[in-house]
Amino acid sequence: METNDGISESEKFKFSYFSCRGRINCRRYWMYYMLPIFAAIFVFMMFIPLLMPAIFGPSGETSAEKFAASMTIFTLIFLPVFFVGFWIQVIALVKRLHDINMSGWFALLVLCSGNLAFIFLGCIPTNEKPSRFGPLDPY
């Protein structure tokens, strides 16, 4: 399905989540930064009720085999969510750095510095003028 600007929804999705080109404003940065965190919390919270009967038997005893099996299932579900979420955050970080006219390679420094740098980047005002990385993403 194409939109008014002639770009299909799948192309927008690919550009938004899988391309390091372009720029995003503060609002979209916060959305891309928080969405994976909420998804991970949702998966974790949905999985806890499923884990409890596997870990604890009817009388409350615990079994090492049940615990190992349930943690394996949890890992198989949670790891893909984590890696996809991390990828989305890195893409958002690079695009946000482009918005303040910095190279995406600075993302390596930000990733090593911790969450304060992520928060700081979300507070820097958006550069409304086109930069060497192009105009703001229209979608």
SS field, number of helical segments: 5
Pick out the low-confidence regions.
Answer: none
Main beta sheet strand tally, sense and closure: none
- Measure the end-to-end span: 15 Å
Order of helical and strand elements: HHHHH
Strand content bin: under 5%
Shape call:
elongated
> Helix/strand-derived class?
mainly alpha
Number of strands: 0
- Helical content class: 55-70%
Structural Rg: 20 Å
Mean pLDDT: 78
Account of the protein in words:
- With 139 residues, the protein is mainly alpha-helical.
- The protein has helices at 9-18, 26-55, 64-99, 106-113, 115-123.
- Helix 3 (64-99) packs across helix 4.
- The radius of gyration is 20 Å and the shape is elongated.
- The protein starts with 8 loop residues before the first helix and ends in a 16-residue tail after the last helix.
Q: Any descriptors?
A:
139 residues, mainly alpha, 67% helix
What are the SSEs and their pairings?
Layout: H1 9-18, H2 26-55, H3 64-99, H4 106-113, H5 115-123
In short:
It is built from 5 helices and no strands. With 139 residues, it is mainly α.
